[in-house]
Amino acid sequence: MLSLAKYIDHTLLAPDATQAQIDTVISQAKQYHFASVCLNPYWVPRAHAALRESDVKVCTVIGFPLGANTTLVKVAEANHALDEGAQEIDMVMNIGELKFGHDDHVKADIQAVAAATHAKGGLLKVIIEAALLSDPQIVRACELAEQADADFVKTSTGFAKGGATVHDVVVMKQAVGTRLGVKAAGGIHTYAQAKALIEAGATRIGASAGVEILMEAENEQI
């Protein structure tokens, strides 16, 4: 089993995040050996420069937070981020098209970003915004992401009406099995939440409270 730190994408996606706050998150990610630091695309070069000699990946978000950008824009955004040092891409799928049943459009959108990401050695996570979907829609979103060659499915942006739930993770894990990773993100602030989500099947946790979660875990084991 991975160490708890290696489950966590240490995240700061706030629109008002300052350079000082970004530097703190990058420093914490390096200190605690998190799986990645997840930042908005503007900060990718700074994270890449700071983490080049570390075991922490640089993750960024694409088509964020609505998923309604055109595919061309998403691909261009992903390519630019990868060229600047991103190694993991968390893209938001076209949620409205999924809800309307335009599965071919959803799949093509993901597939284009997956191809661009993989061509440059990156890993792709697809944010399905589970809080806006029914269980059958969650399953369909996961199936389309798998068909489109994504590496992970991810619960949430953290900007919708709800974040990660154990129920959503269970549904997603049942849909993708061990073929894809499952990232739980949005509203995860405690070790108890992270532990429950991992036990439900999450293989990655996106959280801004990564350090606090690790501290709680250590205190519980004392």
TrEMBL record:
Question: What is this protein's function?
Answer: Catalyzes a reversible aldol reaction between acetaldehyde and D-glyceraldehyde 3-phosphate to generate 2-deoxy-D-ribose 5-phosphate.
Pathway linked to the protein:
Carbohydrate degradation; 2-deoxy-D-ribose 1-phosphate degradation; D-glyceraldehyde 3-phosphate and acetaldehyde from 2-deoxy-alpha-D-ribose 1-phosphate: step 2/2
Tell me the domain of life.
Bacteria
Transmembrane stretches, by residue range? Answer: none
Q: Name one GO molecular function term.
A: deoxyribose-phosphate aldolase activity
Catalyzed reaction equations: 2-deoxy-D-ribose 5-phosphate = D-glyceraldehyde 3-phosphate + acetaldehyde
This protein is called Deoxyribose-phosphate aldolase
Record organism: Lacticaseibacillus manihotivorans DSM 13343 = JCM 12514
Subcellular location, principal:
cytoplasm
Return the similarity comment: Belongs to the DeoC/FbaB aldolase family. DeoC type 1 subfamily.
GO BP terms: 2-deoxyribose 1-phosphate catabolic process; carbohydrate catabolic process; deoxyribonucleotide catabolic process
Annotated compartments: Cytoplasm
Q: Matching InterPro entries, A to Z?
A: Aldolase_TIM (IPR013785), DeoC (IPR011343), DeoC/FbaB/LacD_aldolase (IPR002915), DeoC_typeI (IPR028581)
Keywords, ordered alphabetically: Cytoplasm, Lyase, Schiff base
Q: Where is the active site?
A: 90, 154, 183
